[in-house]
Amino acid sequence: MTTLVPLNRIDSQKIEDLLDIGFGKDRHGRTAYRLRQGVSAIPELSFAAVDGDILQGIIQCWPIRLSCLNGKKLPMILLGPVAVHPDYQGHGIGQTLVQHSLDVADSSDITGHDAVMLIGDPEYYNRFFGFSDEETGDWRLPGPVEKRRLLARLTSPRLRDRAGMVEADAPALQKEG
């Protein structure tokens, strides 16, 4: 039976092996990885799907921010990577991991919880979770990205109609006051 556990309970080599299977050993050169440099994943939002000792899938979330043209730095959360071992794909594990992380974020006071961004399949993430590219057209990233795959789920208006550079948010995991 699949259960979700905090990702920090899983051996880091098992996580790396699963990410290599899902995204390839050259994954560290991708734009999303540039957003993760120098920061740690948010432990409260990062989970593993396991069945006993078997790692079926993982999700990680990261602190990022939109550095706006007017100088404001608006915190957000980067959702991903989401990886499911090929033997367990098609069973809803990825969807369960994403929904669980979003539910925890929605009920938390983690900085940026109301603005979750990802790079992914727009049809899938819109259909199941309400992500869209409507507000991300003027956002830049530290590397190439297909604009239609740059998605956000905003539950407050603070990032609407904003332009700027998305970057890692080094003061990770601050709580809103």
UniProtKB/TrEMBL annotation:
A molecular function GO annotation: acyltransferase activity, transferring groups other than amino-acyl groups
Domain N-acetyltransferase, first and last residues per copy: 2-152
Entry-linked CDD domains: NAT_SF
Membrane-spanning parts: none
Pfam families from the UniProt entry: Acetyltransf_9 (PF13527)
Keywords noted in UniProt: Transferase
SUPFAM superfamilies xrefs: Acyl-CoA N-acyltransferases (Nat)
Protein name per Swiss-Prot or TrEMBL: GCN5-related N-acetyltransferase
The organism's taxonomic lineage, starting at the top: Bacteria, Pseudomonadati, Pseudomonadota, Alphaproteobacteria, Sphingomonadales
